[in-house]
Amino acid sequence: MELAARVREVAPSMTLAISAQAKAMRQEGLDICSFSAGEPDFDTPTHIREAAKTALDEGKTRYGPTAGEPLLRQAIANKLQSDNQLSYSPDQIMVTNGGKQSLFNLMMAMIAPGDEVIIPAPYWVSYPEMVTIARGKPVIVPTAMESQYKITPAQLRQAITPQTRLFILNSPSNPTGMVYTPDEIRALAEVVVEAGIWVVSDEIYEKILYDDATHLSIGAASPAAFERTITSNGFAKGYAMTGWRIGYLAGPQELIQAASKIQSHSTSNVCTFAQYGAIAALEGPPDCVETMRQAFAKRRRTIVERVRAIPGLTCVDPQGAFYLFVDISKLGADSVEFCERLLNEKHVAIIPGAAFGTPETIRISYATDLDTIERGMDRLAEFVQAYL
Fold first, then answer.
1. Where are the domains of the chain?
2. How does pLDDT run across 108-156, given as a tens digit for each residue?
3. Which residues contact 244 (CB under 8 A, 6 or more apart)?
4. Is the pLDDT of residue 9 over 90?
5. Which fold has domain 5-44+287-383?
6. So what CATH class is 48-283?
7. Exposure of 21 by Cβ count < 10 A (0-12 exposed, 13-18 middle, 19+ buried)?
8. CB 318 within 8 Å of CB 177
9. What interhelical angle do 335-346 and 370-384 show, nearest 10?
10. Which long-range contacts (CB under 8 A, 24 or more apart) does 69-72 make?
């Protein structure tokens, strides 16, 4: 069967593939230490689950508005104002099937053939593929460990051409865990405004911060920046709601209407009763988020110490999210082969940096328990000896 050309142009998700292989090996009875999935290992907080159960009991099981339940869109608008100082009205917000669909809808509504989209590398695996599906051109801007894997204003300015339509900003970052400082955000905002391009700010890890890291939404950098900003977020990471598939997009009303039109012909509305769980997440007690953040912080300290004790591996302290981004270039190893052998020989699942545009690195998710971290790092240390 001959498939559409767009399918051949898009690479499969390496992160999902390795996570699936690790799960299959575990089902075979193997002891797998998995550091692959970007998924909190906590249960969704009780009050959120109870709100969804109540919605079920109240018969909230029918079709709803494509752009989301009005109560949830209002709750999101309230959250964006109070937490991020972003003044969006409910009709400037749409609810999507996960944060991923919010970005996919955006690309399909905004990017025309030939439009360029600037993407700093390392990048989340799906960014370039979404641009490609929309018939746009991903423009990859490499960053270095020396700059904490952050794009600089000079790099952004140099990458802009007359064809540039959009800049993708992700802070806190998947895969690096880096967080742009408020001053760095403001400097990037100045370039965006000066060039008259758009920026989409993927803020899905905003609640997972460490030490003195501060999250500033680029749309809050200035009134002019707000006019050029689209905000993407969701409930998966901060509230341990990965399987609920609830995200959202906020931006100019014309764009939100266009993205909603696209969603109306693909998935229609998000699961109705699940949206009432999302309302409870936004309006309920925040202590559950802090409890999870503290657990991630403890795991972060442990895994950084363990990795830095392994000769040949280097890393910077992650300031947010739950990933450690490790440079393996001193080993002279290909990241894909390295991770394949590590999984097959030591039963440790880690994502190769090639998935994120940096083949000399690996990404380790510490969204797992401390015992698994200790056992997995023991195995990683043994494995690395083969390369020294």
1. 5-44+287-383, 48-283
2. 999 999 999 999 999 999 999 999 999 999 999 999 999 999 999 999 9
3. 44, 235, 236, 271, 274, 277, 278
4. no
5. Aspartate Aminotransferase, domain 1 (3.90.1150)
6. alpha beta
7. middle
8. yes
9. 110
10. 69/95, 69/272, 69/275, 69/276, 69/279, 71/276, 71/279, 72/275, 72/276, 72/278, 72/279
